[in-house]
Each structure stands twice: as structure tokens, then as C-alpha cells.
Amino acid sequence: MLNVILVGVFFLAAETAAATDEEACLPAKDSSRIVAAGGSIAEMLYSLDAGNLLVAVDSTANYLPETANLPSIGYVRNLSAEGILALKPSLILGEHDMGPVEVLNQISNVEVEVKRIEERHSAQGIIDKFKCVARVLGKEEAAQEIFTSQFAQTVASLERTDQGSAFLPRAALVLNFVDNQPIIAGANTSGDGLLRMAGAQNIFSDIEGWKPLSRELLIAANPQHLVLTERALKSIGGLEGMLSDPLLASTDALEDNNVHAYGGMSLLGFGLQTLEVALSLKGAIK
């Protein structure tokens, strides 16, 4: 009975959210040859058993082994009209930040359908995106079955997080280290959304966007938990490298062995894998 209730609640919410960008979620005119601009979009296509429709992906889909033999169109925010049009796509299906706009306009002018899918950094936002992609492909029933069987309980667990509590674990999320200086997630970033989903307090929520930060400021903030991309952990020399740094090693996170590393796109891509990462992190920081 619980699953039935969850399906009703989350898919009704998805319909409401989709209405804010109704055109993007309308069924495609022709989805026979899709270029996916954004790893989360490609991930959702494979989940819907529609990977056979893909003719190319951008570089942010490299974390998906299924895309290994597909042509790449470059980076989602720096697309080239010529390279995409050479693939003769019927549909460009992309994340909210694909661009530049001039390239998308050029593609639209040659009558290739372009759909940009809205993204919100929450568990419900991921389901809304999944529902939208499914609707574009005419696979709404399949999406509902997948949600019910694979993600309903996960989403319910994440939505129960009490962000109003004054006792949430204090965490920082590091995208990478550049010259040993951390790039941290501030407000209105996917990193901030991920921490909220997992039931953590982002200690840098008073900073806007992704920002470089001195190690001294990171240490002064003294996170109880440090969440990193695997790339960031590698760039600093792994856990051993962090422990050998007197400043980093002095934080509560390092002293209590509360360092959590995940693949960058699974952590921050806000595809379906991000739901599992957020639930894993929630369990780890309790």
C-alpha cells in the first residue's frame, strides 16, 4: 500500500512541476535519433531502455559505460552546431545548462527539435526530470514502474530529512583541489542540494556558487564531514595526502574518519544515481 501512495504523491508532483516548462516535456516529434547533452539525460534514457535511440552524448556522460562507443559532442556548455548537425539528429535532449544559446538557436533554425530539461537540486527534482524525459519519449508508464520498483523508498527516505533541525551534521563538499586550494559548494549549487538531500548542513551556504577557498578558512569552519568527488580526493593525494597535511588533518572530519568520496557525476549530476549516492551519504553521516 505504501508504494501505491508514494507513486501517487511523487508523480502527481512531477506533473505539477512539469507544467512550469510544459513545452520541454511534451512528446518529441521524432525521437529516433537523439543527441543527449548532459550525463543525467543519457543515464535516464538508458534506464528507460531507450539507449538505442542515442546517436551521441556529451563528455559528462563518460561515467556511463554504455556510452563508450558513442560519438562525443564535447562539453554540455560548449557545444558546436556543426559537429551535432553532422550526426543528423532528430532531437537534442539536454540539461538546463546546455549551450551556448547561439548554438542551440542555430540548430533550431535548421528544424532540429531542441528540448532543455529543467533541473532542481532535490530528490523530487530528479524524479520530475525523469518524468519529463519519459514523457518526451512516450514512456511514462515505464517510468512509473521503474520509480515504484527502484526509487520510491529511496525518495521517501530522502524527503523525510528535517532541514529545519539545528542538529544536522555540519558538512562541506569539495569539487576539486586546485593548487591545494579547495573548490567548495556554496548556495545554489548541485553540491549544496546534495548535502541537503542527505540531511547535512552545508557550512558554506552563506557563499554563493562554487568558490575557491583557502585551506585556512576550511579548517576554521571545521566540518564534521567532508564530502569530495573522487577526482578531488585523488588530486590531494588520497586520504593519506589529507592526513599528512597538518591543517586538513586537524579537522573533525579527518580526526573522526568522516571523509566520503563519490564519482563526480553520480554525486553531482542529479540523475537517478544521485538518489542512491544521497541515501548512502545520509546513512554515513548519521
CATH topology annotation of the largest domain? Rossmann fold
> In CATH, what is the homologous superfamily of the largest domain?
Nitrogenase molybdenum iron protein domain
**Largest sheet entry:** 6 strands, mixed
**What is the H-and-E element order?**
HHEHEHEHEHHEEHEEHEHHHHEHH
Task: Report on this structure.
Strands 5, 6, 7, 8, 9 and 10 form a 6-stranded mixed β-sheet that branches. Strands 2-1-3-4 form a 4-stranded parallel β-sheet, with helices on both faces. It contains 15 helices and 10 strands. The protein folds into 2 domains: 2-159, Rossmann fold (3-Layer(aba) Sandwich); 170-285, Nitrogenase molybdenum iron protein domain (Rossmann fold, 3-Layer(aba) Sandwich), CATH 3.40.50.1980. The two termini are 28 Å apart. The protein has helices at 2-18, 22-25, 39-47, 81-85, 101-109, 123-137, 140-159, 190-197, 215-221, 230-235, 238-243, 246-249, 252-255, 264-268, 272-285; strands at residues 34-37, 54-57, 91-95, 113-117, 170-178, 181-185, 201-202, 210-212, 225-229, 259-262. The chain is of the alpha/beta class.
